Amino acid sequence: MSHNPIPSTYRDTARPTTYSVKSDCTVQEFFERQMKGKSRTAQRQLLSKGAVRIGRRQLRRLDELILAGSTITIEPRPEPQFIMPQGLTIVYEDDWLIVVNKEAGLLTIATDNEKEHTAFAYLSAYVKFYDRNAKIFIVHRIDRWTSGLLIFAKDETVQSILRTNWDQMVLSRRYVAVVEGRMETTEGTVATWIDENPKTTKMFVSRPGTGKRAVTHYRLLDEVPGLSLIELELETGRKNQIRVHMRHIGHTVVGDQKYGSRLDPIGRLCLHARQIEFEHPTTGQIMYFDTPVPPDFAKLFRRNNTQYKTTKP
Fold this sequence. Notes:
The protein is α+β, with helices and mostly antiparallel strands. It contains seven helices and 17 strands. Strands 7, 8, 9, 10, 11, 12, 13, 14, 15, 16 and 17 form an eleven-stranded mixed β-sheet that branches. It has a four-stranded antiparallel β-sheet with strand order 1-6-3-4, with no helix packed on it.
């Protein structure tokens, strides 16, 4: 961590002050090292005013993680901020990547019928708001009606590293789903081969040795008559893997009309990308992110969504 001192006239100056972070730390640890003369209240005021940021991301909490190599800027007069359109929330951002939580109904990338209202378009507008030359790069995607966590790269090198080494760098990916019927076992594994019908673009369980091998692990979280709430961990990441596997074992994901669901209690596919853990492509730091079970899922089981804890690896 650099030792660039905070100017004594900090509150009166409009000049931003930058710091190069030499080792991983929390915002609180950063303040303790760089702002020893300021009270905890003054530190929190800086955060609440949006005066502390990494790149364009404003830091808001003392427990937020700052990775080595990041540049911290303290801006006494914060510049105008981009307002993210509804449906997308930035969970984490640094100089190399952005992790977001996408709502159901929002596309990851453009299709022939929809170009503008996508996670990719929103994030492209976000980075260009601050730097017209900035770009966003797709790393992976989830279905339009699946909600949850997505990773985007901020340059082509990071994108290439993550895509090329995805199976090695992604340590775990967990989803949560509401499925039809009562599970026969509280946990299990579905291992098949999956292929795609070129005419319908639907995936299906194929003969061994054809298509691609797919493995999904599941664990029962809750149940009510006719419905089960399950957590799923992907060992492989094939197109529509969870949806195809759940239909294969007789427990179609609720709201999944494409794969034969007869139920639609909340008007959406009941599948959510809940958790991801991966090796940071630049720093090597192990990054872990999780989200709660969506409230509309939990209400089907008469529970509060915070009652369902993620099983951290």
